[in-house]
């Protein structure tokens, strides 16, 4: 019986992590929630669970909602912009085909929703659950869930924008950006940026960084050039895929110190997300180990 329960859980683990990560935005918290779900699954003595998958999704979602509610004060007191923890996705297998739902811009957008709105929106729009199923999972009436979904859709669609992720479209922009950074070429750097470009730096107050978003192409270009100049000769860069979008790893003496993710549309960089909080780089560091 225990072996069967473990097998059922392991079969659903990728899906549970996908839900938890999109809800919480951090790998460690998502893994903790999934582990708590496993403990509950193993300790539940009921034999009348009609759908183990539904049980596991419900437990994971409700724990994620509770976690977000308890973490709200921490998010409000966070030093500087809060960004989701980056994930290397070039070789990651995710059970959800909709790559947009992993993008940093999309996850940041979800931060504007309440925990319950976030759960209802994700379950409905990303994981394609029917209204009745969503209602059971979050413990609300179906009518209430429809209202919640309507509000969440409106909030997301008002700020939503589609960004380019195809290699052919973004590669020339990234190559120009990379050369400009290495050569300190401010003009070339400006040529890659949209006029209203924004740069966000998540350091959690643990390393020196901009406390507020840097806005406007000229300011962003000078900000990036300044970071590159301070890095010195020991800094190297490696382009990769982060959260299903163009990204870059920054190393100092072969030690990862930042990840950079780009929102690119119409061959211009519209947003740059720099994560330098060491706590949020642990997973990427581990994946970089030989």
Structure description:
The protein has helices spanning about 1-25, 25-45, 50-75, 105-110, 115-125, 130-140, 140-160, 165-185, 185-190, 215-230, 280-290, and strands at about 195-200, 215, 235-240, 245-250, 255-265, 270-275. The protein has about 290 residues and is α+β, with helices and mostly antiparallel strands. It folds into 2 domains: about 1-160, PhyR, sigma-like (SL) domain (Butyryl-CoA Dehydrogenase, subunit A, domain 3, Up-down Bundle); about 165-290, Nuclear Transport Factor 2, Chain: A (Roll), CATH 3.10.450. A 6-stranded mixed sheet has the order 2-1-6-5-4-3. The two termini are about 40 Å apart. About 35% of the residues are buried.
Helix fraction, binned, reads 40-55%
Helix and strand succession? HHHHHHHHHEEHEEEEH
- DSSP summary, beta strand count: 6
What radius of gyration results from the CA coordinates?
20 Å
Tell me the overall shape: elongated
What's the layout of helices and strands?
Layout: H1 2-24, H2 27-43, H3 52-76, H4 104-110, H5 115-126, H6 131-138, H7 142-159, H8 167-183, H9 186-191, E1 193-202, E2 214-215, H10 217-231, E3 235-242, E4 245-252, E5 255-265, E6 268-275, H11 282-288
Parallel strand pairs: 1-6
Antiparallel strand pairs: 1-2, 3-4, 4-5, 5-6
Helix pairs in contact: 1-2, 1-3, 2-3, 5-6, 5-7, 6-7
């Amino acid at each position: 019986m225990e072996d069967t329960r473990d097998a059922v859980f392991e079969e659903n683990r990728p899906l549970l992590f996908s839900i938890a990560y999109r809800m919480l935005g951090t790998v460690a918290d998502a893994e903790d929630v999934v582990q708590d779900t496993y403990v509950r699954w193993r300790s539940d003595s009921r034999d009348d669970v009609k759908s183990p998958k539904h049980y596991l999704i419900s437990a994971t979602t409700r724990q994620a909602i509770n976690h977000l509610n308890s973490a709200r004060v921490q998010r409000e007191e966070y030093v500087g912009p809060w960004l989701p923890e980056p994930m290397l996705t070039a070789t990651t297998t995710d059970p959800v085909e909709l790559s947009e739902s992993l993008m940093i811009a999309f996850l940041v957008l979800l931060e504007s929703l309440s925990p319950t709105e976030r759960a209802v929106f994700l379950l409905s729009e990303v994981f394609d659950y029917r209204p009745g199923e969503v209602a059971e999972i979050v413990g609300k009436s179906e009518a209430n869930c429809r209202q919640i979904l309507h509000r969440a859709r409106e909030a997301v669609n008002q700020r939503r924008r589609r960004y380019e992720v195809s290699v052919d479209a973004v590669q020339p922009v990234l190559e120009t950006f990379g050369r400009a950074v290495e050569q300190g070429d401010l003009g070339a750097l400006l040529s890659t940026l949209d006029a209203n470009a924004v740069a966000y730096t998540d350091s959690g107050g643990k390393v020196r960084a901009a406390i507020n978003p840097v806005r406007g192409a000229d300011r962003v270009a000078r900000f990036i050039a300044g970071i590159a100049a301070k890095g010195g000769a020991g800094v190297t860069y490696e382009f990769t895929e982060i959260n299903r979008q163009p990204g870059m790893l920054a190393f100092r003496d072969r030690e990862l110190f930042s990840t950079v993710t780009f929102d690119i549309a119409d061959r211009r960089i519209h947003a740059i997300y720099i994560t330098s909080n060491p706590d949020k780089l642990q997973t990427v560091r581990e994946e970089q180990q030989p």
